[in-house]
Structures are given as structure tokens and as C-alpha cells.
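for the recovery benchmark. C-alpha cells below, seq after
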């Protein structure tokens, strides 16, 4: 029985080798523009069945925009604290007010301002005060929405943009910028 298997294996290998040969009929002709390359006749595709073409390009795929988490209001306000715990803010439909130990705030009534607020139309004002014992929601470095504002929190600071006016402010311990 062992001999039969060997014979069948040799026959199968021979059959495979014969099937792998290919011959192209015809004779090569010299191309006058390039004497070293032969030319072959090509057929023209019929108009009734167009030949599909495939083009491969490498295009970088942009990451989808981050999905914003909606923060629900309490009595018309959303209260947040940043991941660092150094900044607390209250957000309503008309303004955002934040309190933090700012390192370069202006002097207000003889003391360094510890608060800042921005209105929906981009008016920024430094203030003295304390937000008190507000029921804050801790936020992470992500994107959020609250009361018509988009909040983008990163390690470098927190940006508040009014969805209707595109005005707002970027808040960090080292400074605040209105836009």
C-alpha cells in the first residue's frame, strides 16, 4: 500500500507541474520608439460593457470628531470641576463663570482676581468671589455640552464655546483668553 501512495504522489506532482506551464502564441515585434521592448496587440473594450478601473490611493483617514457628552442642568445651571480639581465653573445659557487660583490674574478691588466670567457674546470680566458649595460634576479630558456651550477639557486648560455665537474663553491656571 505504501508504494501505491508514492506513485499517486508522483503522478499528482507531475499533473500540477504540467498545469503550471503557459505559452503565449505569436511573435514579438520591435517597437520603433523603444527597440528593446516588444509590443503586443491589445483589444479595445466594447462600449456595451465598460471595463471597471480600480485606483488605489493612500489617503490618511481623519479621526472622527469627538462625541460630546451632555451634562444635565440643575435649576438652569451646570456645575463642573476640572480633572485637576483646581478650577470650578458654573454654566448657564448666557454665561460661564469660573473660579481658580490663577497665577496671572489682574487686581480687582485691591486683590488678585480669583474668578472670571464670559458672556455668550464674548465679553470677559475678572471678578473676586467664591462659587460656594456648588454640586460640581467632575469632568475628564474630553468634550462636553451644557446649556448651549461646548466644553473641551484638556491637560492645557478648558475651552468654553457658545454654540450660537462661537464666542467664549479658554481657562487655565496660567491665564484666560476670550474669543
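predicted aa per position
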Amino acid at each position: 500500500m505504501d508504494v501505491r501512495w508514492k506513485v499517486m504522489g508522483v503522478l499528482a506532482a507531475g499533473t500540477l507541474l504540467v498545469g503550471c506551464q503557459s505559452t503565449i502564441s505569436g511573435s514579438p515585434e520591435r517597437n520603433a520608439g523603444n527597440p528593446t521592448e516588444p509590443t503586443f496587440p491589445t483589444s479595445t473594450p466594447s462600449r456595451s460593457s465598460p471595463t471597471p478601473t480600480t485606483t488605489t490611493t493612500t489617503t490618511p483617514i481623519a479621526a472622527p470628531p469627538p462625541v460630546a457628552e451632555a451634562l444635565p442642568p440643575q435649576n438652569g445651571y451646570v456645575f463642573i470641576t476640572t480633572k485637576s480639581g483646581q478650577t470650578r465653573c458654573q454654566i448657564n445659557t448666557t454665561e460661564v463663570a469660573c473660579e481658580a487660583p490663577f497665577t496671572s490674574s489682574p487686581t480687582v478691588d485691591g486683590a488678585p482676581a480669583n474668578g472670571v466670567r464670559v458672556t455668550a457674546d464674548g465679553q470677559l470680566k475678572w471678578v473676586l468671589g467664591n462659587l460656594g458649595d456648588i454640586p460640581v460634576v467632575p469632568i475628564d479630558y474630553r468634550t462636553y455640552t451644557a446649556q448651549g456651550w461646548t466644553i473641551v477639557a484638556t491637560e492645557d486648560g478648558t475651552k468654553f464655546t457658545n454654540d450660537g455665537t462661537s464666542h467664549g474663553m479658554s481657562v487655565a491656571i496660567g491665564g484666560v483668553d476670550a474669543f
